[in-house]
Amino acid sequence: MALNDNIQNLSATDNVRIVAEFSDLYFFKGDKAAAFELLADDFVAVEAEGLPYGGEWRGADGFDRMIGQITDLFESTVNTFHVKYRDAGDVVLADADLNMKNRRTGKVLPMRVIELWYVVDGKIERVEVFYQDTKAVTEHAEGK
After folding, report:
1. pTM metric for this prediction
2. What's the CA gap between 133 and 110, in Å, rounded?
3. Which is it for the CA torsion 33, 37, 40, 42, positive or negative?
């Protein structure tokens, strides 16, 4: 598997490869159909409730709608963030430094994000997203 240059695959485990491949297909190659094949039927994405797009997002459609809400607020280009993956067995930790550009104001908020990706039997069942400062993200979304 050839991954985008911005992804550093620090472990060769199958679960890390699955998560890295999902990210590469969805975010970098725009191949949603192939990416969604890596999701379990009961997949759930969880964002902090205090965020404008917070809550549980179910299935591939839910993930796509969540990303749509995020990208309505913020612009992030491929070369503005860097992801490192860590193997923790059935959980893959993704450590990302983002630059979140507010589409309305043009201001950029650098933000560290940790994601926990749960992989069972070769399918991604859940992702939980943890921002270093959810208050700053919410205020940035509001243009403050």
Report:
1. 0.86
2. 10
3. positive
